[in-house]
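Two entries, shown back to back:
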Amino acid sequence: MVITDFAIFEQNGLIRKCNIPELISFISSNRMRTILHVDMDAFFPSVEVRAHPELREKAVIVGADPKEGKGRGVVSSASYEARKLGVKSAMPISRTWKLCPDGVYLRPHFDLYVKTSNCVMEILRKRADKFEQAGIDEAYLDISSRVKSFEEASEFAKELMEEVLEKEKLTCSIGVAPNKMLAKIGSDFKKPYGLTVIREEDAKEFLRSLQVRKIPGVGPKTEERLKDINIETIGDLAVANLELLVKLFGSRGTRLNEYANGVDHSEVRERHETKSIGREVTFEKDTGDKGQILSILDELAEEVHKDLNDNGFRFKTISIKVRYQHFDTHTRAKSFSFMTNDLDILRNNAKRLVDAFLKGNKKIRLVGLRVSNLEMCKYSV
């Protein structure tokens, strides 16, 4: 018997010879990737309704105390009955009161939400090749080796939805796709208790008419800047001038264009304990434009704040990073005597910290924002 250390196979009509590690890499890279994004439906209110069945079918708003329309703070989450009346997450509680004065307003019970989340995530983790918890109420599952087609993946997802409902008495929605970004968009497409499958060949058409806000990480500021250059839908973004996008958003512009075309190469990875949350942007051209830098910092603050809320964290320390045109890098930080997840505190202090770097004639290549000294929220926002 002759044992060889190479293989011969056909690729694109050509006969190739390669060693065994190269063959394994080829097979792996050409395997159909199947990713699920599981998103719990109105998680905080649903957990509250599970504990208090008398609240079922009522407009339940979890967040700050409205104090008869004069309260401060924002909505953490709202039931679908409240959402039908126009209530949204992060909406000022005073405005929410005007829309929904007869709603049931509850302070958050984060200890209960975390305990429930842990139970749900354990169900999901056992069903995945690779698992990544993306927030207190959402996770990515790579199930590529467990299914052979998207038809099988759809059945797999249905079984998973039923298992979560049976064991935890909570509903979730799932997106099935060849990458994380598409799966996340899919999980939000039909809610509650919805299942959306996006095949690679259908991705561009599926995305084409959706608003750019549907892309993960695109907030109000980014949406506004895209509208300024007549980009409103993901289809518009897919065919936009890449040089212009990079000029406006730095390296992030390339990623936005890839997302709009259904492309995302990021892997599903298990996250360890979160010690900090941050974002940074590299400018296409080094800049000394204070307005541009502060505008980008606003966007970074919104993205970091969303991550904080999605994961149920508060922070104590803010850090700013600036890299100048000659690659010398500097940081400044500020720690508070209290824990917070307030967006205004984050945004205003970030601007104060960066101000010291905006004096003089040095141009900036990169700006970053990070929060640390995190803890899980235990009280109302």
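entry 2 starts here
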Amino acid sequence: MAAITHTADAPQRYLAAQTRWSHLETAFWLATLLPFVLFPSYLQLAHQVAVTALFVLSLDLILGYAGIVSLGHAAFFGLGAYATGIASVYGWGEPISGLFIGAVVAALVGYASSFVIARFRHLTLIMITLGLGLLLHEVANKAHWLTGGSDGLQGMNIWPIFGVYDFGLWGYTAYTYSLIVLFIFFLMARRLIHSPFGLALRGIRENDLRMPAIGAPSRAHIRKIYTISAFMAGIAGAVTAQATGTVALDSLGFEHSADALIMLVLGGAGRLYGGLIGAAVFLVARDQFSDINPQYWYFWIGLLLIAVVIFLPNGILGGLSKLTARWRRS
């Protein structure tokens, strides 16, 4: 009986161990404050890293943990950006509520599409998500009267945060705002992943056909996580729209989805911090490579991606964890 109880308590003990904060995690979040002190001229880039990290984190929830491969995830980012931007054009520019306007619109579309997503896997799923992204991109392009089409959404009027903190040119408010939003939703994602629901998602990723046999409804779980992921992607899009004061058509584009997938591969899918690390590495590398050669910076990004895939097949965090394990064994 004691052995049975010990085995039954194993998942709870595992989850409890995972929820404890490590010194490395604390150091990581403290390091996000360094741009304020050491790199104040790069605060706009730091803001872009924070927002993109949130977007890639939302992709990691469905790809890294549930095994849902998506090539159209930018659709939810763009929906959040357009919903927030259009609301501000028509007179409502309050930032905090604007975030949730964008997020709710993205989540509603994500929930509606999740009934299709939950029915398919592998190549069919890739084509469906790609088609969804292309469809919304073309709708936004044709609805010039509402979205501005290829000219982008114009006339946004975002109010100061709490009526005090205005989005300026130097990026102090934008980075502070995006960093706080990233941290809040990271905590939510961390809690979600280190829960019985998170364990069920990993089981679905490994074998979605066997999970219902142990009482985990695969399709229902996929619909839930897909809606949550769309909500988070909409938040990232809304923050970007508020900080930049405009929404471009490429926020819905395939290239944006592909970049997010590249960042996740770089950092390491299914590792929670992988999307954050991948976004930082990709955007900083792009910034430096574009300074060296503005026309061919994608060549260097391609070399970086090939090197990571060959030498660190599980991403940067996967490679570091292997090195750490070897060091401990030795």
